[in-house]
Amino acid sequence: MKKLKTFLILLLITNFGFAQKSDNKIRSEIAGTWTLISVENNNSDGTKTLPYGSNPKGILFFDAKGNYSIQIYKNERQKIASGDKNKCSAEENVSIVQGSNSHFGTYEIDEINKILTFNIQTASFPNWENTGQKRSYILNNNQIKYVVTNTTQGGNKVTAEVVWEKL
Q1: Nearest to 147 by CA among 134, 165, 130
Q2: Which residues lie closer than 8 Å to 117 by C-beta, 6 or more apart?
Q3: CA 97 to CA 53: how far, in whole Å?
Q4: Tens-digit pLDDT profile for residues 56-86
Q5: 123: buried, middle or exposed (CB in 10 Å: 19+, 13-18, 0-12)?
Q6: What is 51-96 written as a DSSP string?
Q7: Are 131 and 123 in contact (CB under 8 A)?
Q8: What is the DSSP letter of 98?
Q9: Taking the complete model, does pTM exceed 0.90, yes or no?
Q10: N or C: which end of the chain has fewer CB within 10 A?
Q11: In DSSP terms, which residues pair with 33 in a beta bridge?
């Protein structure tokens, strides 16, 4: 019985060590600066749209400690005529809100199930704050592609495919 307990303890320690090594490996692969390639919404009726235009701008930072920051912008955003964002017209406010998406917090990676979770602390879309947003992902060479299943534009009726390239 004592040998069995010792064996089980060693097995648990070994598994923990492999899991930790695997987590460190994927974090080192993801850590760094990424530039946005595309955002494509897949609507419930089967149509596809580009919510941030054909040439969106964006940057994503992951660090090895589990922190992240993401900013996405529509390239063709309207300038504010007054030069003061506190004095925007309704149309200018729409351009700002619908033309950007940003959030930051911590992230987790489930490499076995290929799930990236953004634990959002603060977001330009306040409904996402203090939530864990899970994304299935594919990491291939210097690109990461993930799927958003509860978007800021359409909720759960729209999915988005987001592609980033590592700088």
Answers
A1: 134
A2: 107, 108, 109, 110, 132, 133, 134, 135
A3: 14
A4: 999 999 999 999 999 999 998 889 999 999 9
A5: buried
A6: TT-SS-EEEEEE-TTSEEEEEEE-SSPPP-TTS-GGG--HHHHHHH
A7: no
A8: H
A9: no
A10: N
A11: 61
